[in-house]
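Hey,
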Amino acid sequence: MTTTPTPGEAALGYEQARDELIEVVRKLEAGGTTLEESLALWERGEELAKVCRRWLDGARARLDAALAEEEQEAGDAGGAGG
């Protein structure tokens, strides 16, 4: 499995990918599409879900790093007094 986004995926922001994914799900739930169309929608949905997951994983990593830095700074400041 590759984690490198395709050029089209790299251009999609989280909100764009999420909104398109919602639309894909709506179309699949509504039915009325051919098997081929349904498969294409499913595949697009999988791609969009991966884009969203990468954005969320990146946000989580940034948050974790910021929290760790804050904890380290608080620990350094607490040990300096005395």
